[in-house]
Amino acid sequence: MTNTADRHDVAGTADALDPRDPGPDLDRLQRLMGLMTGDEKHSPAATSTLDALWVLYDRVLRVSPESFGDRGRDRFLLSKGHGPMAYYAVLAAKGFFPEKLLTGFGSYDSPLGHHPDRTLVPGAEIGSGSLGHGLPLAVGSVLGLRAQGLTDPRVWVLIGDAELDEGSNHEALAYAGPAGLEQLHTLVIDNSSATYGWPGGIASRFEAAGWSAETVDGRDHEALYAAFTAPHPGRPRAVVARVEPKSA
Amino acid sequence: MDTMRDRFISTTSRLLDDDPRLALVLAEISRDGFQQAERRHPDRVINVGIREQLMIGVGGGLALTGMRPVMHTFASFLVERPFEQVKLDFGHQGVSGVLVSAGASYDWPAGGFTHMSPGDVALLDTLDGWTVHVPGHPDEAEALLRRAVAGDDLVYVRLSLQSNASARPVSPGFTTLREGRDGVVVAVGPMLDNVLAATEGLDVTLLYATTVRPFDAEALRRAVDGARADVVLVEPYLAGTSTTAANDALAETPHRVLGLGVSRRELRTYGSMEEHLRGQGLAPAALRERVTAFLDH
């Protein structure tokens, strides 16, 4: 089942009535992260992206190791390349590369650096680490897909609330709204790590630029799924996923 | 005669008609010239507003989906301002594109230093894999642009209002225009006419370069086989930009290199391009003095 409408129907009915227990999935992901960190459990900061990433890869993105080379795949761009353990754990859990690669995390010959490199990591759409590059690359990806008549694939980019400090993001979000880039989706993981915060809220920045935007609990899988799959005709979509403050 | 920038607009507009893989990203500059192309190809002529970081990031994103992006604005806003985007959104991602600049080092002296970019080629020298074209005539610009768009590599095309009176056939390597014994002079792109005037009657080998990266080391080695290994580089951007490349080319040969071009020091003057060429010591009389002083030394 890859039909968009079907997914939205599911979100509105069966799943909402009978939420899936995310416990076993999260336990497995924590174990995979442990192969990189040596820890059994991880701090909220280390897992700030974990729930949202899992919901995306498990239920929303139409991409798999088999379809990764397809022009029509959905694209996920990890812009906030810091702390990529959760991302690597999700990619391993989805079969993009074997779990055994995780143990080499950060070592000389490992493809898995402390910031991802797309030329080394199977399943990674971009290399990141320097903040503020993913959203402009995502805008260009949407424009490239559209220019080739590929209006079905969706492009997702994950940024952090502190990453939003970088001006390049504001160049991109101010352009994407008026340009009506419906295929573009920004996931903002908000763990209150921006020193000056975002008075008025992060979502308001996107809304003012013409985006559809929603703020949800970044640990609530059903809320994330509903926000990820809500229709937003003619407009790009921003989902702000709030998690525990980094400093807490 | 049209300018190199005019030729860029007409050539790219035609290429957009022919090549569905080609996309043009603008940041307002030259948008008027591309109005027709934008109407014909609204999905592939993309103006992002005055947002140069976004322009380069968008180019990288287009390339990630398999398009061939051309990005264009003044050199200072194309290479210098979004330099980290050039570094990371292309080379580091393993994708390619074409940067086409206008403005060069002193095209608009009345506009002052904010619109001068003598350091663009030197900056790109810190990155791997960039081909750099410096055409000396609109016809050469068209040929090099067509080559750049048809390719799959990282290419910078540096356009200027400074132009030689006549075009020469472009070649990936340096062209030998004259052979002599007392030394070798390499003229880059639009510096050629001044170099021709400056070296008239001198017994030197004269090489002409419209592609400076990769640097044609082989041509320089051949040239010093027949002439004294005293080499003068005359470049329309930061003086000495290619001195390292020339030294590397001649690593096995005792040699001397003089790198002439635009100084780091701001002139802090306005006026015309001719006045700036004189101010930089790049007008024929000053060039001749500097070349002969070096060769006679």
The chain pair forming the largest interface, with residue counts per chain, is: A-B, 31 and 31 residues
Most strands sheet of chain A: 5 strands, parallel
Nearest-integer average pLDDT of chain B: 98
Instruction: Report the CATH C-level class of the largest domain in chain B.
Output: Alpha Beta
CATH architecture annotation of chain A: 3-Layer(aba) Sandwich
- Residues in helices of chain B, as a percent range: 25-40%
CATH class of chain A: Alpha Beta
Number of domains of chain A: 1
Number of helices of chain B: 12
Q: Could you name the CATH topology of chain A?
A: Rossmann fold
Q: What structural category do the secondary elements of chain A indicate? A: alpha/beta
The largest sheet of chain A has its strands arranged as 1-2-3-5-4
Helix content of chain A: 25-40%
CATH superfamily of chain A: Thiamin diphosphate (ThDP)-binding fold, Pyr/PP domains
Count the domains of chain B: 2
Oligomer: heterodimer
* Distance between the ends of chain B: 41 Å
- Strands of chain B, total number: 12
Secondary structure tally, helices of chain A: 9
Stretches of chain A where pLDDT is under 50 for at least 5 consecutive residues are 1-16
- For the record, the CATH architecture of the largest domain in chain B stands as 3-Layer(aba) Sandwich
